Amino acid sequence: MRIGFDAKRAFNNYTGLGNYSRFIIESLLEHAPEHQYYAYTPKLKGHWPNDLSHYQGQLQVKLPVAFSYLPSALWRSRFITKDLQTDKIDIFHGLSNEIPSGLAGVRVKSVVTIHDLIFLRYPEQYPAIDRFFYQRKFRYACQNADAIVAVSEQTKRDIVDFYNIPADRIVVVYQGYQPLFNQRIADKTILAQAKQKYGIEKDFVLCVASFTERKNQLRLIKAFEQLQTKDHQLVLVGGKSAYLEELKNYVQQNHMQSVSFLSGVPMDDLPALYQGCSLFVYPSVFEGFGIPIIEALSSGVPVVAATGSCLEEAGGEGALYANPLDVADIAQKMQKVLSNSTLQHRLIEAGVEHVKQFAAKPIAGQMVKLYESL
Questions:
Q1: Rounded CA gap, 106 and 369, in Å?
Q2: What distance in Å separates the CA atoms of residue 184 and residue 300, rounded to the nearest whole number?
Q3: 294: closest CA among 334, 349, 351?
Q4: Alpha-carbon distance 170 to 160, whole Å?
Q5: Lowest mean pLDDT, pick from 31-45, 51-65, 89-103, 263-277
Q6: Class in CATH terms, 2-176+359-373
Q7: Fewer beta carbons within 10 angstroms: which end of the chain, N or C?
Q8: pTM to 2 decimals?
Q9: Predicted local confidence at residue 269, as pLDDT
């Protein structure tokens, strides 16, 4: 098969959608090399990403040709079809919630990955202009793609409920995680150096999530406050935002000395932070999947996560689950894990087994099976 990808984010984005795009492309190149792969991107930002650079002989990167003078958004949404036709693409996979129009007219089968429909569940958290364009792109993709990949059962239910799409057109293929998270750091001095670099002076509870209200860090801070522990500190990793300032104000007003905020942490430093923590907590009110949970479980640490969306799918038996709206419940689950070494070991063992299904090989196999069915 000749398989094309919407690879804009694979080559130009180094957060969630970019990570997913690179993971899928790399997994297929590694575990299904018998097919031909084409990555369509309107531009290349500098060098190839490290995780794709090893495959420059296998992956053909395609920049706009037929309509190179057009704005990149217009090429991706409509006129890319001419290039797909020229390259005789069999399957085109939109990896980030959208596909171009006109694929059926050039006899190219289409797959779209839908990551979540959170903008419909929590519209107040998105600017009106973003919601307008998301709604157009997501709805069109769901209604017109030959197959839809949902990254969780929760996302599949949302696609059915919000867009009235038949469930049999949707295949759940879970997101994977980067291999660096299950590579154990044997040298303890590396873990100690990471703590020193980020000013972590005690054993610590970790949360990695963007600083937005939906991620629920304020209730996590209040839950940590209820623990009244002198043995641990809470380390929150994320990007800068207005909500971050709200969190910092709460910590300052309540004289909490053992809460740290880290922004701008490079990906290469995250494994040491995960493996160095005593507990990972992810209290998000709603998610499409929950990659940080997978990263924590593959790092071999116990997890407390939230009920109510898809986080039980991500964590399986490797986590305890708390009501994200109940500060006391979050605190109780954290205390239960931190005070019980037997429970910690049980969660770690269950988590390591659970995350095997999120590895590259089984996910690549599921994708190829879907492509072949089309």
A1: 23
A2: 9
A3: 351
A4: 9
A5: 51-65
A6: alpha beta
A7: C
A8: 0.91
A9: 94
Interatomic CA distance for residues 298 and 181, integer angstroms:
6
* Dist CA 161 CA 175 (whole Å): 22
Q: Specify the pLDDT at position 46.
A: 65
Q: Is 284 exposed, middle or buried (0-12, 13-18, 19+ CB in 10 A)?
A: buried
Residue 240 has pLDDT above 80, yes or no: yes
Distances (CA, A) of 120 to 99, 125, 127, 128, 163: 19, 10, 12, 11, 11
Question: 179-357 falls under which CATH superfamily?
Answer: Glycogen Phosphorylase B; (3.40.50.2000)
**Whether the domain at 2-176+359-373 and the domain at 179-357 fall into the same CATH topology:** yes
> In a 10 Å sphere around its CB, with 0-12 CB exposed, 13-18 middle and 19+ buried, how is residue 311 labelled?
buried
Residue with tokens 């990659």: 291
Structure tokens at 334: 């954290």
CA 82 centroid distance within chain:
31
Extract the tokens encoding 316: 């399986």
